């Protein structure tokens, strides 16, 4: 109960009937990634995309009603056809709101894709570089939940 | 729509995240998970002054994580575990979005492979 990690962690596993290189090719590809990232009815407007370790994806998710959700992913680890780790920021260079990772493992003729995500707490926001406690008001966190919804 | 479902929970989530963000408050919740306790009892291990303790308890109470009641001169607190439900709801929303995203990835690579196969078998 110390840090409620279970309440902040998401783990999803899925087997997709395609070889790892095909899935990796659809993921680590600036042309195809925005095509399936979604959600349905949303569009991605990319500002910068550089899908490699140390790279980033800065983009807006645009809802069907025109609402814009700014996103910034920083790729902290890219191990070809094996694992991606990235940090989700609230808008370009914004406070961090989650750490995520994706594992790719061959399974039979297909690939097991495992997604993990851990939401950060307010405490971690405070430690985030360049963001003081005043930037972390409740309103900010309220907006944050909406942003994460589109992330 | 998922986003409107999320927006509905925003105020709750903000208060919850704020309440859970402090180690002293988490220690208090941990103590209360073992059963109700008087304020003085909660103050005991922390070494904090009473006004500080009361401020932390007020944050927990506003987030709905605890209930407190006064009996004579003694105020006692108890845990309200249901208060964590909005957080669970939020994660469920995330899960739904990722499931849908993986569906789209699945569709995308399936189309890709079908197109490749057609190309390979084309005369």
Automatic annotation (TrEMBL), chain A:
Q: In what residue span(s) does the Activator of Hsp90 ATPase homologue 1/2-like C-terminal domain sit?
A: 18-147
Coiled coil residues, start to end: none
Q: Which InterPro entries is this protein grouped with?
A: ASHA1/2-like_C, START-like_dom_sf
Q: Which Gene3D superfamilies match?
A: 3.30.530.20
Q: What is this protein called?
A: SRPBCC domain-containing protein
**Record-stated family:** Belongs to the AHA1 family.
